[in-house]
Amino acid sequence: MATGVAAIPTLLAACGNAPSTPASAPTSVAPAAATSAPAAAASASVTAISAPAATTAASTAATSAPAVSTGQQVTLKYVTWIPEPATADPALVQGDRAMLNLFEAQNPGIKVESTVLEGAKYDQLLRPRILAGDVPDALLMQASTFATMLSEKRLLDVSNESGTTAIKNTPFLAKFYGPDGPIYAALVNGSANNFPFFYNKPTFDKLGVRPPSTMDEFMALCEKIKVGGLEAVVFGGKDLWPFQTLSLPYANAEALARVSNVDMALAKGELTASDYFGGYLTFFENMVKQGYIGKSTQTLTFPQSAQYFAEGKAATLPQGPWVPTMDEIKAVPSLQLATFAFPHPADSDGKIRLIATADRSLGISATTQHPDEAKALYNFFLDPANLGRYLTDQSLVTLTPGVNPTISSVLSDFYTSMNDTSRYTLSMPSSKVSIPAGFTNETNQSQINILAGATAEEEAARLNEEFDKVKGQIKISE
Amino acid sequence: MQTEIICKRATPQNAWRTNYIRRERVAAFIALLPALGLFGLFVLYPLGTSLFYATTDWDGLSTTYNIIGFSNFAQVFRERSIQQAFSNTLYFALLSIPSGIVLQLLLAVLLTQSLRGRSLLRTILYIPAVFSPVIVSFIWSALLQYDGVINNLLRSTGFGILAFDWLGDIYTVKNVIIGVNLWQFVGTGVVIFIASINGVPQELNEAACIDGANGWQVFFNITLPLIMPAITIVLFLSITGSLRIFELPFILTGGGPRNASTTIVMQIYNNAFGNQRFGFATALGLVFFVFIATLTLTQIFVTRKYEVEY
Are A410 and A337 in contact (CB under 8 A)? Predict the structure, then answer.
C-alpha cells in the first residue's frame, strides 16, 4: 500500500512520450469533514506512508522563509474552488483556508483574502474576473485552468523557488509545468486519472457479491445489485463533473490505444469527439437502459450523491479519494467503506492506459503586485511537510516525490491494484493544449441527456457539433 | 399672382429674443452634459464596442483577435443549439406572459375587495419577489429533485405513484420553470394592478351599476380601459423578464435535460465563458437585443392605443 502511490511517479518516469491530457481533468471539491482521522469510521488501522506532522495548528507547519517585511501589512488575493468545510476541525488542514491561516500565523505582515468559486464552473467564473482586472496574486488551478493560463502567459516563473524543487527534479512533472523550460506552477494534488468505486462491505455481503476484476463481472455485479433492489451506481449528475470520475478514464483508456496524445489529436482533427467519447457513451447508455444508473443521478448534487450512497440507496459511488472525509459519509457510522478499481477494457497488449492528472496546481499571477509575498505563500504551501499534512487531512494523494501523505486504509485495495504495472501504464498529459472548459461540460451534459432519453449515437453527433464550436478557441503552444 | 417675400426685419426685440433662446438652449445642453456623458459612457460606448467585438473571433482574454465581418451574426441563425434556445425562450414567454397577466389581474381584483386579511395576503404574495432568484432556484431545486422533498413527501404519504421527475423530463421541465417563475414574480404585477385599480373613481362604477351594468361589464368596460397604463407597464416588464430568464433554468437544470430548458441568455453566457466565443456571444446578445426592443416597442405602441382618460 505504501508503495502504491509512490510507484506512480516511477511508472511515469519509465514511460516514453507524455501523451495528452483529457479534455479537462476531473475537478475535486474537498467537502466538509470533521474527524481527525482520515479513515472511514469502521476501518481498522490507517496505513501510514509517513506519519503526518503533529496535529496542533501552530506547530505543524514547517517554517518557510518569511516574506520580505517592509513593515506594512500586505494583502494577497487567493482564488480556489475548495470550499471551507462546514464543520471544520481547527486541528486539521481540511481546505485551502486552513492552510492560508497557518501561513498568516507565520507571516503576521501578510494577510490572505481567499475567494472560493464553484468548482464545476471554475474556469468560467475565473475568466470574467481576470477579464475585469481582478487577477488574484496566487491561485489554485485545475489542469485546464493551468493550460489556459500558461498559454496566455499569465503565470509567474517560479523555477527558482523552493516550492518548485521537487517539480524541477522530476522530469515528467517538469515537462508538464514547464514545457518550454521555465516552470510556472507546481503540483498540489494529482494521481492517475482513475477513480475508485466506493462500496459498503455489509451491502455487498448481504447481496452475496464481490468486487469485479473484469467488465463481465462488473455487469453481473450491477445486475445482482439491481435485483437486490438498489441502484448499482450513483453520480452527482447535477454538478456534472462527477461523471468525469468514470467517463474520462474510460474514454482515455480507449483513445490512448489509438493515439499517443489525445488532446493534440482532438485539436488537430486526428480524433473526433465522437471517436473519443462514443465508446463510453455507448457503455453509459447500456448502463442506463439496464437500470443500473437511476433517475436520481440526474438531479443529485455531488454531496447528495454521497448521502444517497451512505443511506444505502445505491450500492457503489465512483468518486475521488476524499470520500471518506465527507460529512455525509461520516454521518453513517455503520458504513464499512471499501473500494475497487473499475475494470477498464485492456488494450491488445493487455494494458490499461491511463493518464495522470494534475487535479490541483498552485501558481502565482504574472501581474501580482506583491511577488515576494506571493512566493512566500507558494513556498509555504508546497513545503513537503505542509503539503503532506494538507493532503493527509483531505485524503488526497500526489505525484510529487518527497511528499508522503497518509492514505486511508479504505483506499488500500484500490491503490494496490493501481500499482500493478503489468496491468496499467500511465502517461502525463501535455500542458501545451488548452481546450475550452465548455466542451468538457458538454461531454458531462451528454450523460444527463442519455439519462433523459437521448441515444449514445445522438449524443456523440452532438459532441462533434459542440467541438466544432470551440475548435477555433483551442490554444496549442508549440 | 405676385408672391411677396416678406422678410422679418431684425428689430432689437427679435435679436434679443433669438439670443435669449440660444442662451437657454446652451444652458440646457450644459445641464444635460453630465447625464449625456454617463449615458454615453455606460450605454453607447459598451454598445459600440460590442458591435465591434461581435465582428471578431475574440475569446474574451487574448490580446489578439481577427475581424471576421458578420460571420458571427450569420452563425447565430445557423446553430441548432441557438435555434432550440430561441424556441425554449419563446415558449417561456408565450406561456408565462398571458397566464401571468391574467393571474395577476384576477388576484389584484380579489385583493381590492373587502376581504379579511387582504393586507396579509398581499404581503404573502409579494414576499417571493423580494428574494434573489438564485436563492429561489436553490430552494426549488431541493424541492423538485427526483429524490427531493416533494417526491419523498408523496412517497411517504402513500402517493408515491405521483412522484415525478420534475426536472429530468424534457416535456415537463419547461412548465415547471414557468410555474416557479410565476410563483416568484406574481406579486410584483399584483401590486401594480392594485394601485391602478384603486385609482379608478368609484363614482364611475356606481354610475354604471345604476345604469344596470353587471360586474363583468363594469370590469371590461370601465376598469380595464382605465388601468391600461398599468397593463402596459406590467406587460412590458413581463415580456422583458420572461425573454431574459436565466437564473432559474441555470441553477435548476443547467439548461437540460437535452437542452429542453436552455435559454438565449444561457447560450450567451455559455458561449462567452464556457466556449470562449466572446465575439459570437456578443453577436447573439445584439441580435437578441434587437428582437426584444422590436417586440417591446410594438407592444407599447399597441397597448397605448387602448389607454383612455376620463
Answer: yes
